[in-house]
Request: fold
Amino acid sequence: MALDADSQNKKAGWQLGRLLTGPFAVIGRVAISWVDNLGASAIFLLLAFLKILRSKQLIKIVQQVYYIGARSTMIIMLVSFFTGMVLGLQSYHALVKFGAQGALGTLVSLTLVRELGPVLTAIMIAARAGSAITAEIGIQRISEQIDALDTMRIDPLRYLISPRIAASIISFPLLTALFDLVGIIGGYVSGVLLLGANASTYVYRVQTSMDMKDVTDGLIKAIVFAVIVSMVCCYQGYFTHMRTDSHGAKAVGLSTTSAVVLSCVLILVSDYVVTSLLI
Amino acid sequence: MEIPLIEFKGVTKRFGARSVLERVNLQIYEGQVTTIIGLSGSGKSVLLKHIIGLLKPDEGAILFKGKPLSEMKKSESAANLAQISYMFQDNALFDSMTVYENIALPLRETTNLSKAEIDGRVMARIEQTELEDAAHKYPSELSGGMQKRAALARALATDPRIVLFDEPTSGQDPVRKNAILGMIAQYQRKFGFTAILVSHEIPDVYFISNRILALYDRSIVFQGSPEELENFDHPFKDEVIRSLEGLQNELTGLYSKRQFKVMHHVQLTQKTPGEPYCVAVFSLDDLDIIRTSAGHNAAQVAIRGLGIYIDKHFGAIGGFSTRRRSNEFVTVLPYSDLAEAKSMLKDFVKDFQEQGTYEAWAGARKQTRSARCVEFTVLAGIAQGQPVADIDSVIDAAKSQQKEIARLRCDGRR
Reply:
C-alpha cells in the first residue's frame, strides 16, 4: 500500500512537472528549429553565392534574368502605373485641403522611390517569379532530377541556385527603377491629366525633391530584397523533400505557398531594418 | 585473388528507427554484370544509392578497389565516384529539356569538349539507342520505353566505367524489357563498363548477369552466378524467386526453367530404364548483329517469334520447351528416340524455312525502320538421353551437334 502511494505520488509529480515544463519545451523546440533553419539558409546562401563566379554560369544567369526579370516587366509596369495613379489621386485630395497640391510631385516620387518601388516590386516578383522558382526546383527535387545532377557530378547549387540568385540581384534593382519611373508617370496621369494639377510644378518637384541618396537607398533595398526572395524561394524548393507535413506534389504546393508568404513577410521586416539603417 | 571493384563491409543504414540495411557484405567485380535481386521495398535502391554516394552508411565501410571511401581524400573519392553513372528507376530526365539536351547536359557541364564534339557524342548515343526521331522532343512527349532509352543514353554519355541501373525495365512490356536488358548486355560488352542492376525480372535478368546478389531481410544472403543460385537452398528462394518467377517466360510464353525442370523430372520418372528421350537445342545466331542492324526490339521480336514457333510445332507432338539463354531454346521430346526426333526436326526445318523465318522476320520488321538487310541464322542440334542422364549433359551434347537449319537475308529465305 505504501509502495502504491509512493508510486502514485511520483507519477503525479512527473505529470505536474511535464505540465509546467511542456510550454517551454514546445517553445524550445520551435526556437531550435528556427535557429537550425536560419543556419542552414545562411550556409545555403553563402555556398550558392560563392558559386556564382564559377565557369559556365554566364549563359544560365542571362537565361534567368530573362525569366525573372524580362518576363516580369509587363506586370511590374501595370502595377506601378496604377499604384502611381492611386497615389496621385489620394495625395492630390489630401494636399488640396492644405492648398499644397504643388507638392504632389514630391510626395509621389519620394514615396515611390524610397518605399513603394522596392517593396511592391519585390512582392510582385516573389509572387510571379519566386513561386515559379520554388515550384520548379521542388518538382525537380521530388522527381529525383536534383539527385540525377548529383550522380552526374553537376553541383545542383551551382547549376540551379547560383544563377537564380545572381539573376535576382541583377533584375530587382532594374525592375525597381522601372517601377519608380512608371509610377511617377501614373501619378502624373491621375494628378495632372485627370485632376488638373499643374504639369510643370509636378515635373519640377519630382526633379528637385529627389537626390541621389533616395535613388541609391531604394536600389540597396531592392538588392537586399532580391537576396531574400531568391534565397527563400530556392531554399523552399530545394528542401521540399525534407518537409514533415506533406510529401510529393502536395509538398511542392505547400513549399510554394511558404516561399511566397515568407518572402513577403521578410521583405516588410527587412524594409524596416534597412530603412532604419539607411535613414 | 582479384580485388573487388566495389566492396561493402558491414554496411548498415537506418532511416530513423527503421533499419533498411543490416551489416551488408558484398563484392562487385570489374567488367561484370552484377544484378541485385530482392522483393520490393527490401532496400535494393538504397544499396545502389550508397555506391554512387547519394547516401552514406551509418555503420560499416564502402571500399573502392580495396580502399575505404571514407579514408580517401575528397579529390580521390570524387574521382572514383565520377566514374559512375546512374540510371534512375523513374528515369529522372529533365522535363524542361529535350532528349538531346538531356544527353548533352553532363558533357556540357562536366567536360571542356567543343560544341561539335559534344554534338558528335550525343548523336552517336541517340543513334545507338534508336532515338533519332525523338531527339528534339521533350520527355513528356515520349513513350515509357523511349524515356528509358533516353535515360540510358544519358547515363552512357560520359563513357562511365561503372553504370548503375535501378529497375531499368520497370513498367515495360515483355519485348521492351528484354530489349532493354539486351541493350545493357550489348553495351556492357561493347564499352566494357561494369554494370550493376537492380531488377525484379527473374529469370530474364539471369540471361545477361555474371553474378547475382540476393538481398533478403536487410542482408545479402547470396552472391554467385545464376547457375549457383539454382542450387541455393535458403528461404529466399521460396519467398522471393518463386514469387517473382512465373511458370511461363513472359517474352516467349515457353515454360520457365524451373517449370521445365519439374516437367522433365515428372516425364522421366514415368519412364522405364533404357527408354530414351531426345533433346533439341535451337539458337538464333549473331544476336548482336541483329541488335545493331535491326534494333533491340526487332531482335527480341525475332527471339519471341522463334520461341513461339518452336512451342507451336513441338508442343503439338508432346514436346515441351524453355528459353535457356537470351538466344537459346531447349526442347524435350519425351517419347522419341534419336531417329524419330531427327525426323521431327526435319519436318520443323521444312516448316520453319517455308513459313517460320518469314513470320519471325515479319514481326521483327515492324519494329524497325531500318532499310538495311539483316541476316537471321537459326541453328539446331539434337541428342538422345537416358532417364538416368543429367539433362545438362544431354543439352550440351545437343548443342555440340548444332548446325544451320535456316537463314534469312532480308526477305530472301534459304
In short: Chain A has one domain: 56-278.
